[in-house]
Amino acid sequence: MKQLSVVALLSFCLFSSVCSADPKSETGDINGAKFRIDIPEKWNGGLVIYCHGYSAKPVTFEGAKQNPVLQVFLDQDYAVAQSGYAAGGWAIQEAAVDTESLRRYFSGKYGLPKETYITGHSMGGFLAMMLMETYPTVYDAGMPMCGPLAPTLSFMARGAFDGRVLFDYYFPGMLPNPAKTPANFVNDREVQVKILQALDAAPEKATILRRANNLKNNRDLASTLAFITYLLKELQERAGGNPFDNRNVIYNGTLDDNELNASIARYDAEPRAVAYMRQYYTPTGHILHPMLAIHTTYDPLVPVSIPNSYQATIDEAGNSNLFVQQYVKHDGHCAIDPTETARGFAQLREWKTNGTRPKSGENK
Fold first, then answer.
1. What tens digit of pLDDT does each residue of 186-227 get?
2. Three-state DSSP state, 234
């Protein structure tokens, strides 16, 4: 008993010295993935793992200022750890490994956190959901923000790919083949301006495309089309071919759906590419701890129809009691401000700690 008491005392002293230390930041590299760790002055022993969104290149942190959104977690006395991932693009495969490696590194250096939360924006929100399902006992709760909480293959195919195919029907030849996008395609201002000018010059066609993509204006449509063209290129490189098939899709909502379906380009998918997309990742809804998702009411890149579908996945897994989705009244992708983030996190903490489930609906 005396020996156990000494061990416990030493552990308490170590934990207390870390928690009462000056605020600190650490940057480094784990197997090619840059990382950043921030520990506040009055660290409460808890950890927030943050997953960043889609980036064409791996993220680095040297000399970077703290993201104001992440400051809200530090202000609530939680440490924050974030990986830049070893690869850019839809790096779900690499990000899952790199984030888990960082979590283990943190525990090895600073001690096992008393509780661990996971959050992220956009693709990072998708990762937060995925890692809660993949490591259900590791994370005490999660808060995906503006994430596409649905099977990658389905929301990319019936969203990004269909959007490009429909655009090509009305504006043939303006953008490259969506099933074989050339490696040198770049999403830059020149491409976006070219698309916008074409849309502005053909208002009837632009209206049909905006309606089909649930977008409010031509500028959002142009920037979204340019981005998804680059995304399709990157996914084809990553998956080893075109993973999208629209041969059995019946398009509607235009002035002449019969002519559209008779003339629109049809593409078949390559099996290995389909398998890759299904692996990275198809949600299961198998979570063990609370998840609070937050989304804007208008998101031009990840429309609300995508995260809405996660409820059915959760229901099928029998975990309806563990999922709540809230919205904020903003236009834009990931337009969730720090105050709303802090409020959501406080509600998630209360849910995790005391079992007080947040209300669905508006984040307030």
1. 999 999 999 999 999 999 999 999 999 999 999 999 999 999
2. helix
At residue 74, what is the residue type? L
Q: What is the pTM of this model?
A: 0.91
Does residue 16 carry a pLDDT above 90? no
- Contacts (Cβ under 8 Å, ≥6 apart) of 168: 174, 175, 178, 265
Q: What is the H or E stretch that residue 328 is in?
A: strand 323-331
Q: How many helices (H) and strands (E) does the chain have?
A: 14, 9
Contacts of residue 311, defined as CB under 8 A and 6 or more positions apart, other chains included, come to: 320, 323, 325
Pairing of the two strands 323-331 and 24-30: unpaired
How far is CA 122 from each of CA 85, 108, 243, 302, 356, rounded to the nearest angstrom?
Answer: 15, 29, 21, 8, 26
φ, ψ for residue 81 (rounded to 5)? -125, 135
